[in-house]
Write a structure and sequence with these properties.
about 375 residues, globular
């Protein structure tokens, strides 16, 4: 006999109230008890074991001791070069390669270094490490960073590449220069802020994503989708699954959502370096954006990656994306338009492919990390006089 059942019997014999009233009160007590048990379970999951906690604290002390040493070493190695620090929101360790922001930071560093900068990538755990930098560039996605004004010589730049709805005007004002991944939104911010605002759209690594005529000969009939489910029903994926298109998915959270179509899921993750080979072997890729990115006219980098590899794209759209690629991308805003995009791929593939191939010179010139590194250096030079 359970404790609550025994308590119920005792209370009924002692307290002169109706049976219904007493049952309701005991049900409330039972629910509260279950809520407390659930809360305790969650707390236990999030509390580190004693030894793990000790190791974590010891590691943090070592990290902060290393920051001071690193600052001196950086000054020595940089010599007379400008020191640029890229604040990347990805976590340290093996997890970092699962973040698109990390591949983004690595590509940008390569080109800044070639332009004569001494460039450092600070992962999220090291965001508080300062090395007397000349420029700190924050890749603003989901994580907030406060510029350290103790370094009076430093120019602080925010490059807002995603999640624009999370950034307030007050946060923008903390910086010296603002770059945003949308021409339309940059114009809007220029009217609101007293600090310099520049449009700086997302881009692609043209040393990784580029046309490969030899690989083109082996293109198959696969439809691709690369991205996690985010715990929501991303329409283009569900439409493709419902229509039994030859879809292959790389991303987490899809198997439970797709049910019998879960065989479409190849892996829950794919490294950025492996994506070009997929793009050069497939027929088309599906694409969509976070809602706020469409609302603020931000174009995601997967568009540029795929087109650079000569892969047609079926995507949701905003005005800015249509202005960049008026006819090289197939656009949908509902199921009927999505079906029309699929029909276009299946009946006029050569025409679609020709329009895609024609974009490579423009992508290489205007939407590469090389172009973005050059623009950033020019912006800093202009603003610092």
């Amino acid at each position: 006999m359970s404790f609550l059942h025994t308590l119920k019997q005792k209370l009924r014999s002692l307290v002169p109230v109706s049976r219904t009233y007493m049952d309701n009160k005991l049900k409330e007590l039972e629910k509260a008890n279950k809520r407390q048990e659930k809360l305790l379970t969650e707390l236990q999951k999030n509390i580190l074991p004693a030894q793990e906690m000790k190791d974590y604290i010891a590691n943090e002390f070592r990290r902060r001791d290393d920051w001071a040493k690193r600052a001196i070493q950086v000054q020595k190695e940089a010599s007379d070069r400008q020191i640029w620090v890229i604040k990347c929101p990805a976590p340290e360790g093996e997890k970092k390669i699962r973040w698109g922001d990390y591949a983004y930071a690595v590509a940008l560093k390569r080109y800044l270094d070639r332009m004569g900068m001494y460039t450092i990538i600070d992962l999220h755990e090291d965001w508080d490490c300062e090395v007397n930098a000349d420029v700190v560039l924050v890749l603003r996605g989901r994580e907030f960073y406060r510029p350290d004004r103790r370094n009076t010589k430093c120019t602080y730049i925010m490059w807002n590449i995603s999640h624009p709805e999370m950034v307030t005007e007050e946060e923008y004002k903390l910086y010296d220069i603002i770059c945003v991944g949308s021409l339309h939104y940059a114009k809007e911010l220029q009217q609101k802020l007293d600090i310099p605002v520049y449009p700086l759209l997302q881009c692609t690594d043209t040393e990784l994503f580029y046309p490969d005529p030899a690989a083109e000969k082996n293109r198959g009939g696969d439809y691709l989708f690369i991205g996690n489910s985010r715990g929501v029903a991303r329409p283009c994926v569900l439409w493709a699954a419902r229509e039994k298109l030859p879809l292959k998915i790389w991303g987490a959270g899809w198997k439970a959502m797709l049910g019998p179509d879960k065989t479409m899921v190849q892996e829950v993750f794919i490294e950025n370096s492996q994506i070009p080979a997929l793009y050069r072997s497939a027929r088309v890729t599906l694409n969509d954006h976070w809602k706020d990115m469409l609302d603020y006219q931000f174009v995601n980098n997967r568009i540029f990656d795929a087109l650079a590899c000569g892969l047609p794209v079926i995507s949701d759209c905003c005005d800015e994306l249509r202005e960049i690629f008026p006819d090289a991308v197939l656009y949908y805003s509902n199921k009927e338009e999505f079906d029309q995009c699929v029909k276009e791929i299946e009946t006029h593939y050569d025409d679609v492919k020709a329009r895609v191939d024609a974009q490579w010179p423009m992508i290489k010139e205007k939407y590469s990390f090389e172009a973005r590194a050059r623009e950033l250096v020019e912006i800093v030079t202009r603003e610092k006089g």
